[in-house]
Amino acid sequence: MTVIRTLHHFPLDPASRQVRLALAEKRLAFDEVLVRYWEQPKAFTALNPSGLTPVLIERTGDAQVVVCEVRAILEHLEHQNPEPDLLGASSADRAEARRLMQWFDRKFDSEVNAYLLHEKLEKRLLKLGAPDLYNMRQGRDGLRVHLIYLEKLLAARDWLAGGRLSLGDFAAAANISVLDYFGDIPWRDFPAVKTWYMRIKSRPAFRPLLADRWPGLAPSSSYDDLDF
Amino acid sequence: MTVIRTLHHFPLDPASRQVRLALAEKRLAFDEVLVRYWEQPKAFTALNPSGLTPVLIERTGDAQVVVCEVRAILEHLEHQNPEPDLLGASSADRAEARRLMQWFDRKFDSEVNAYLLHEKLEKRLLKLGAPDLYNMRQGRDGLRVHLIYLEKLLAARDWLAGGRLSLGDFAAAANISVLDYFGDIPWRDFPAVKTWYMRIKSRPAFRPLLADRWPGLAPSSSYDDLDF
Q: Which of A119, B10, B70, B226 gives B15 a disulfide partner, CB atoms 3.0 to 4.6 angstroms apart?
């Protein structure tokens, strides 16, 4: 029976972007509902009590499964639609892809997004006033440390988790692409990361992300440029 | 071939505790290496560049797999040792268990642990001075909101994710047990959460956690009491 998918998401949310990339890479069609999560819409918190995007709903005939939160959705999609495999064939491959995912969930989010995205995105959405320059500096310093780490990984690997594209790459690309929307990635200093991002950016799965625009927030000039 | 397991962990780390509970529930023996993660020991950051506990090493003959970070380890263990099943049989069960895990990773951690555990535990380990009373208050207020949510879930369910014990319960119990070590859970006001915790606490898998002590940090008087 056909599965009808609906993804509730926010276009500039790194967690939502990971799910959109995985769905597209697996060629799974889905309807979209854009969630203004910061307004805590009741219809959405009824779906996911945490109030956080993304949420995937799958309808098969009369049956429905609601899958909340990025990690749950990605594990669900891998299990239900194993081709193409985005986690890896061996235990070691899967461990490495999941290590990178949690790196971004836990470390990148608290050391970079909590400063930079908070100042540049959340404060505008929540109308909390002008960005705090000290926080922006903290976030940019944190970002450089992460880019140095990715540059080192990519000196020895084609993709972040090893020889093949994985959810580890999507975790990184989803986070980096949102910061790139705001023009915050110092590409010049990180040639290996830039080459890797050019390859990810050229994939058909990435196209919808490059078309994202949010009212009042213009993207940087090279955001959707494949040859940046 | 026999699998030799070594878990690198910190006893009062909620993420490490989830892995210890899952290993014990699956009756998988393991050696332990206690990590003073806040000192960033080189031998440990060589294993896991994020510097965060837990890390599980599995040796089978000459082969070795290093699995870093709690989510990667728990998914690995479910895949390699499916009995007893701690994720759930249906897609909906697994989605619910994983939703709760990420609830604690993302929401509980930033709304409760970032205040309460930071003030009571991390500041002592890092010798950062006396706890900040405003932060403690923030953390305790956040904790009450989470306990109200758990109390509501448990009014309709035997276990947090539904009819069976799951990794969702372990995520909750691991976080709550560390705060209980410091005497911070207002049990009196949350009878359903208390009953649920008594059941978890009585499981053989929980015993090693109740025996945990860290030098200079005494547990609350009822921490290891099964009838608290």
A: B70
Are A63 and A154 within one domain?
no
Write the CATH number for B104.
1.20.1050.10
Query: Which of A95, A228, A108, A126 is CA-nearest to residue A175?
Result: A108
Domain count, chain A: 2
Q: Are residues B63 and B96 in the same domain?
A: no
Query: pTM to 2 decimals?
Result: 0.97
Query: What's chain B's average pLDDT?
Result: 97
Q: For residue B170, report the phi and psi dihedrals to the nearest 5 degrees.
A: -70, -35
Task: Tell me if B102 and A70 make a contact (CB, 8 A cut-off).
Answer: yes
Q: Residues of B with CB below 8 A from A80's CB?
A: 91
Per DSSP bridges, beta strands A55-60 and A3-9 are antiparallel
- A48 and A96 belong to one structural domain: no
Residues A51 and A147 grouped into a single domain: no
Q: Residue A1 — pLDDT band, cuts 50, 70, 90?
A: confident
Closest CA to B159 of B174, B148, B170, B144: B170
Residues of B whose CB is below 8 A from A94: 72, 75-76, 79
Above 90 in pLDDT, residue A184?
A: yes
For the segment A82-111, what is each residue's pLDDT rounded down to a tens digit?
999 999 999 999 999 999 999 999 999 999
B97 and B196 inside one domain? yes
Q: A91, B80: Cβ pair inside 8 Å?
A: yes
- pLDDT tens per residue, range B110-132: 999 999 999 999 999 999 999 99
Instruction: Give the CATH number, domain containing residue A16.
Output: 3.40.30.10
Co-location of B182 and B151 in the same domain: yes
Q: Residue B24 falls within a domain, yes or no?
A: yes
- Same domain? A39 vs A112: no
Which tokens go with B109? 């951690």
Say what the alpha-carbon torsion angle A97, A100, A102, A105 is, to the nearest 10 degrees. Answer: -130
Same-domain check for residues A104 and A162: yes
Instruction: Residue A168: give the domain boundaries.
Output: 91-204
